[in-house]
Write a structure and sequence with these properties.
Length: 453
């Protein structure tokens, strides 16, 4: 695996708590040069793994920079596996800048790149790639459910699952390898196929069950998408503004005002929900409006939940039924204008009356959407696929497992071919943790981090 430049020689530093003004700013330093910081910047002895109050001094003129807490973590028992120092300085801009400037004056020191601390932890075997991804999700989590799912990755539960599968695979592979290399030994089973086929079948069942679970991680990361759809002028934009509690979309009485998809992120009971206002669905000769209608149809097709809206006219787009699954919510807006009375069709799909103007029924609508999101994101003890990258690796593993199981069930089979299928299955699982062949995705994964992580 290619290592980051000068990993053994360069010492990196960066604020780990962000650059905004705050009561305290944590500046992290990692690398072999940490002792230079203890000797030059701190000066006084610091006990390992204890918070010590010390004065930081400018190495050029000896003037004090700040009075702060210093924590010293000798490697390899540290986050990165290297020597690490944390400086808990006051969070004023001048203090932070002076500290960073002084650190930069040490030979071999430089400002860390985004995610470089986590990358060093990965390269030094402190974290596997699934734990790194979980850490990134935990840092970026905006809602309670995002936090809970990210913690499953970061605390090693995803790693334990895939490593357990890989261990079972390698156990079967050991029998096959023994049959190839030590065919005359008494410890090698005579009927290799029947010896491992049961274990392979059980493992394949577990893998397929895992793949069948909805990929909650990707949806939770991007948000549960709720699309507001209907004919023009039924109040979709007004409802979006009511939900967002701000003027997120332009509202006029002119039909066709909304031309593009307007998105608003909402933390709905701990669930990340993205509400999407769309162009009114109707036939039009206006080329710009037509593009808006096409984007609205696309948004409906890609939605996790569709809220179909009408007003007192009870008009629905012709394509509403064909574009909708059973999870759609049908509502009538402008409830403050009264009941449409006898003019309403005998059969209407409306399940809820709301008013974007007064707020009537909006709480009930949000409760329905939250229930839909809750059903989609129900976290059980079974760990589902949390990332598309994981899904591809697990699917690849399942394919090789099926091939191996089919071979083991034959009366006469090529043992070396069986061994190769098992190796490829194990290799696919190893890629999830970053054991092999992941250099092409490292930059993308670690780029999700802030500078100081």
């Amino acid at each position: 695996m290619k290592r980051i430049r000068g990993l053994a020689e360069e010492t990196i530093f960066a604020p780990s708590s962000g650059n905004q003004k705050a009561g305290v700013c944590v500046i992290r330093v990692s690398g072999a040069g940490c002792r230079k910081v203890l000797d030059g910047l701190v000066g006084e002895p610091v006990r390992a793994r204890q918070a010590c109050l010390r004065t930081l001094s400018n190495t050029e003129n000896g003037e004090p920079i700040d009075r702060c807490l210093v924590l010293w973590f000798p490697g390899p028992s540290s986050f990165t596996g290297e020597d690490v120092i944390e400086l808990h300085v006051h969070g004023g801009r001048a203090v932070i800048d002076a500290t960073l400037r002084t650190l930069g004056n040490f030979s071999g020191f430089r400002l860390a790149e985004p995610g470089e601390f986590a990358r060093r932890a990965f390269l030094n075997g402190k974290l596997d790639l699934s734990e790194v991804e979980g850490l990134a999700d935990l840092i970026n989590a905006q809602t309670e459910m995002q936090r809970k799912l990210a913690l499953r990755e970061a605390d090693g539960r995803v790693k334990a699952l895939y490593e357990g599968w890989r261990g079972r695979l390698l156990h079967c592979l050991s029998f096959v390898e023994a049959d190839v290399d030590f065919v005359d030994e008494d410890d090698v089973p005579d009927d290799l196929g029947s010896t491992i086929s049961g274990s392979l079948a059980e493992l394949l069942e577990d893998v397929n069950k895992h793949c069948a679970n909805p990929m909650q991680g990707e949806v939770l990361r991007q948000g549960f998408r709720v699309v507001l759809a209907g004919v023009p002028n039924v109040g979709k934009s007004s409802l979006l503004n009511r939900i967002a509690q701000r003027e997120a979309a332009i509202v006029t009485e002119t039909a066709g005002t909304t031309r593009d998809v307007v998105e608003v992120f909402v933390d709905l009971g701990g669930y990340p929900v993205v509400f999407c206002d769309t162009a009114g669905l109707r036939g039009t000769e206006d080329p710009v409006e037509r593009i808006g209608v096409e984007r609205a149809v696309k948004a409906v097709n890609e939605a996790d939940c569709v809220v179909w809206m009408c007003d007192e006219r009870l008009e629905w787009p012709e394509a509403a039924r064909s574009l909708t699954d059973s999870d759609a919510i049908w509502i009538r807006n402008k409830g403050d204008l009264g009941d449409p009375g006898e003019s309403a069709p005998q059969r209407s799909p409306v399940s809820l009356v709301v008013s974007a103007q007064s707020g009537e029924g909006v709480v009930d609508l949000l409760a329905l959407i939250q229930a839909s999101a809750s059903e989609r994101f129900e976290l059980t003890e079974d760990i589902g696929v949390v990332r598309q990258r994981h899904a591809e690796c697990v699917t690849n593993c399942a394919g090789h497992l099926e091939a191996a199981l089919k071979l083991s069930g034959q009366d006469h089979f090529d043992t070396e071919l069986l061994a190769e299928e098992l190796r490829l299955a194990a290799r696919a699982l190893a890629k999830i943790g970053g054991r092999i062949d992941v250099e092409d995705i490292l930059d993308r994964i670690f780029g999700e981090f802030c500078i100081g992580k």
